[in-house]
Amino acid sequence: MNGELDLYGVFLPGLAAAMLAAFLVSLPLRRLLAWSGFYRLVWHRPLFDLALYVVLLGGVVSLSHAYLS
Fold first, then answer.
1. Contact 23, 52 (CB under 8 A)
2. Where are the domains of the chain?
3. End-to-end Cα spacing for the chain
4. pLDDT tens digits, one per residue of 29-61
């Protein structure tokens, strides 16, 4: 595997697909956290959302590496 995705002749980095997947997972998770009132306990919401996205991205990358290797 060369780490690139062929999308109708356009080569995209594999990390771009992982970033999109992590973003799509983070959307309902952030909505759930807002609905439950969890953000009242968070000091800086955008910073927390960024950290949550980075953790999700790491999880998506490690899962994709485990399943594709």
1. no
2. 4-68
3. 9
4. 999 999 999 999 999 999 999 999 999 999 999
Backbone angles phi, psi at 56, to 5 degrees: -65, -40
φ and ψ at residue 42, rounded to 5 degrees: -95, 135
Sign, CA dihedral 34-50-3-11, equals: positive
Q: Give the number of other Cβ atoms within 10 Å of residue 22's Cβ.
A: 19
CA separation for the pair 47, 35 (Å, rounded): 18
Residue with tokens 């919401």: 45
Within 2-69, where are the H helices? 14-36, 45-68
Cα 32-36-41 angle, rounded to 5 deg: 110
